[in-house]
Each structure stands twice: as structure tokens, then as C-alpha cells.
Amino acid sequence: MAGGVVLARGLSDRDDRLLSADEPLAGLQLRCGGELPGTIAIPALLDTVRKARRFGLKLARPITAQDGTEAVTAWIEVEPGAGEDAPCSIVVRNWRTAPLPPDDADLAIRRRTEIDRTLAELTARLDARQCLLAVESAASDLAGLLTAMRGGIGRPWTEFVRIEGDGHKQPMHWRLLDGAELGIEGSARRWKAALVPVETPGEEPSGFELYLVPETPLAEAEAPVAASASGQRLIGMDLAPVLRQPISRIIATAETIRTRMAGPLDDAYSAYAADIASAGQHLLALIDDMADLEVVEAEGFTTMPDEIDLGDVARRAAGILGVKARERGITIDAPRVGDLMPAVAEFRRVLQVLLNLIGNAIRYTPENSQVWVRLEREGDRARVIVADQGAGLSAEDQARVFEKFERLGRSGDGGSGLGLYISRRLARAMGGDLTVESAPGQGARFILEVPAGP
User: Cβ neighbours of residue 278 under 8 Å, at least 6 residues apart?
Assistant: First the structure.
């Protein structure tokens, strides 16, 4: 390459600004979002220039870049000047371009959903008519909305917000509401609605996940302050919202970088951003587990029982985790529509337990296998059974699996060892229980049992 024809030359200063450049290097700098003169906007070139200056050596290597429509491969040589303030000379001797493959539409939708889910400060479960089933929020300026929505379970969520710039009579089709700008009484912030359908291909949505995403985070003065060591709960009521918000922003920013929504990026940097997002998600999950732990261990903790259908809750849990299962080639065999199992329990807590059980089954069962979710009634007890084709549990492990922080020797899977402990506490608080039946090499059957309904 060193003896090849010089296609372009450029100069950069000590602040890594591209002072001048010939085509096609100048065009790539502009298409990557940079200016001329301006900070080098081509990540791989910027990395090479910085290393050449740091070590005081001439570096020659291939680089790759993307400008939004094409993938570029080039051979560059970077030579630092003799003095500290002397510019670096940049030489390009080879240049190849190839069209980028089209983006996967489904993947783009999943990426957007993950970003909305991470940034949301209110989440809710809706039925097929967009009526509220459960709602959660920790934002101080949504306290009034949270109280109103919880008092209006069974009513359309649109009754509790103001849809900006729209005079259509409600209810509107969910696609018209997805992305709608909202005004919320008691909040000075602007909001966006994100609706994610829970559906089976070829069928109408059986429900929705609703996320209210703010345009801006709460000011620090409005954020809750962590309690001192006074014996009061720290994580659930005070510290969790303080931690969750900045971590969510870190995850969202990393996802934006990883998916190249902010501009072209080398694959290596995209992978770094993916690692950051993954670590942030594990940390958020740990915070949520610790907050739940404080709730279920608090003196006087109770649930809010109601007449529910375990079959409906099981189908919703399976639908929410369907994408995660398909990514590993796993099929969730859930109860069919019309399979009823009346019970007396708190809908939100039963859904939380089933999401944990089915999520564990997906995580620990082999790829391209199956997870079964079955309904059963015995006397005055209603049951949901989650069975997998994993490695199974010994009698000793079955006795330990529900203990606090128990992970059965696993490491590196991002778990806290609290999910099953919390799930059993929730089941028992609802007047039921959570048990397991298993044998090594024969998978596991986790059985959630609650009082049967009429």
C-alpha cells in the first residue's frame, strides 16, 4: 500500500481537528456529521491520529467507516509533525466503497421500543381496548396521574392525559396514539406516548404496554433525596428513583450509539456501546430487585387481591417475552384464548411472578427448545405451571433455589439471585405458594399456586 497512488491528503492539529482535506476524505468528514475545518468525525481515523500523536510515530493501517449509505474501506498513513504544535499529515492511498445492506424494519422497531422502555417514567399494562390493567411510576410530577390511573383501572388510559394538537374523539386506534405528544396535569414537562402491542402474528393485539417518555428528565432539585441511616427504606422509596433516572439515560445514549441512530460508526465502537447498555440494564434490574426486596420484606406488606383469570395473565406474560424467546429459537406454549382459570390474587403481582418464571425458563433452557405454561385447578387452589427443557435441579438445589441471593453457582448471567425469593414471598402474600419439581436432566416445573376464584 505504501507505494500506491496518493488519492487524498489532509492535515490535523493538536486538538484533533481536520484543518484541510482533499476529496474523497473531505466528503466523508462532512457526511459523518463533521465540519471542515472541524473535529475529525470519522471514528477510526480519529483513533489513528490520536495514537500517532501520543507515540510520536508514523502509523499506517486500513480503516473502515460508514456514511449512512455506503461502507468505506481506506488505507491511511498518519505522521505527526516534529513539534508538539505541529500538524499531523494524513495520506490516503486506497479507497473502496460498498452499499450498506438495508436495515431490518423489525429490528429497528425493537430498538426503538427498548429505548422508550428504558426512558419511560410511567409504565402501564392495557387490555385490547386500551383500558388500564396496572400502572407504575416513581416520578414526583406524575403522582397525581398515578393516583388517578390506579383509581380508574378498567378505563381507557387516554381519559387521564391531554393529547396535544388533536381533537379526535376517543378512543383512537393505537397506531395513531403511538408517538403522540401529551400534556399531563401537574407536570410542566412534555411527554410522548409509546404503545407496544402484545400480539400473535396474524391476530389483533390482545393488549398493550404503555410507556410515557419525558422530553427532559426531572431537575435535580425535584428528584427524591436518599434517606439517611435511620432505619427507613432507602432503595424502594428514595434511592431507586435517584439511581434509575441517570442509569436509564446512560442506557438510552449507549443504545443510540450502538444502533448508529446518531450517525455512522465503526463496528468495534458499536460493540463497546452495546456492552455499556448491557451493563446498565443489569444494574437497573439489580436496583429493581433490591427495591422489590424491601417491599416484600417490609412489616405489614400485603397485596391487593381481586378476581382475575390466570389464563389471561399467563398469555400476557408469554406475549411480553415472546420476542426474547424467538431470539433464541424457543417456543412458548401458552394457554389458548378461552382457557380460563379464575383466581383471587393481585393481577400485577401475578404478572411479575410469571414474567420471572418464564424469563428464567427462556434464559436457562437450550436454544431451539420449548417452554410450556399450563393451568391447573385442585380444590380451592388455582395453579400456573411453567416447565422447561433445561438441565434440571437436584434435590439439594431445589431446596436452595428460593433462598435470598442464591444463584446455584452461576456467574456472568447478570442475575441477582433475588427473583425466585421475591416471587415466593409475593405468592405467599397472596395466600398461595411457589414450588418446584425437577430432576437432573429432566427440566424443571415451577408451580405458582393462589386461591381459586368462583
Answer: 414
- In sequence order, what DSSP letters do the residues of 333-396 get, joined into one string? EPPPTT---EEEE-HHHHHHHHHHHHHHHHHHSPTT-EEEEEEEEETTEEEEEEE--S----HH
Cβ–Cβ under 8 Å, residues 122 and 145: yes
- Give the CA diameter of the chain: 87
Length of the chain: 454
pTM: predicted TM-score of the whole model, two decimal places: 0.51
In angstroms, the CA 109 to CA 302 distance is 38
Please tell me the least confidently modeled range out of 28-32, 198-202, 240-244, 333-337.
240-244
Give tens-digit pLDDT for 159-183: 999 887 655 455 567 888 888 889 9
- pLDDT at position 221: 30
Q: What is the pLDDT of residue 239?
A: 61
Residues forming beta bridges with residue 344, ordered by sequence position: 307
pLDDT attached to residue 170: 53
Alpha-carbon torsion (291, 296, 298, 300), positive or negative:
positive
Name residues whose C-beta falls within 8 Å of residue 40's C-beta, 6 or more positions apart in sequence. 12, 16, 17, 18, 29, 34, 46, 49
Q: Give the percent of the chain with pLDDT over 90.
A: 26
Closest CA to 220 of 192, 250, 251, 241: 241
CA 217, distance to chain mean position in Å, is 18
pLDDT on residue 120: 86
Grid coordinates standing for 340? Answer: 380460563
pLDDT for 228: 35
Kindly write down the DSSP assignment for every residue of 15-73, as one continuous string. Answer: T-EEEEE-TTHHHHHHHTT--SSEE---HHHHHHHHHHHHHT--EEEEEEEE-SSEEEE
**pLDDT score at 390:** 87
Amino acid at 388: D
3-state DSSP assignment of residue 102: coil
Per DSSP, which regions of 100-171 are E strands? 122-127, 132-137, 162-163
List helix spans (H) across 227-346: 240-258, 267-297, 310-320, 322-327
Per mean pLDDT, which range of 51-55, 218-222, 276-280 is the poorest? Answer: 218-222
Q: Strand 331-333 vs strand 370-378: parallel, antiparallel, or unpaired?
A: parallel
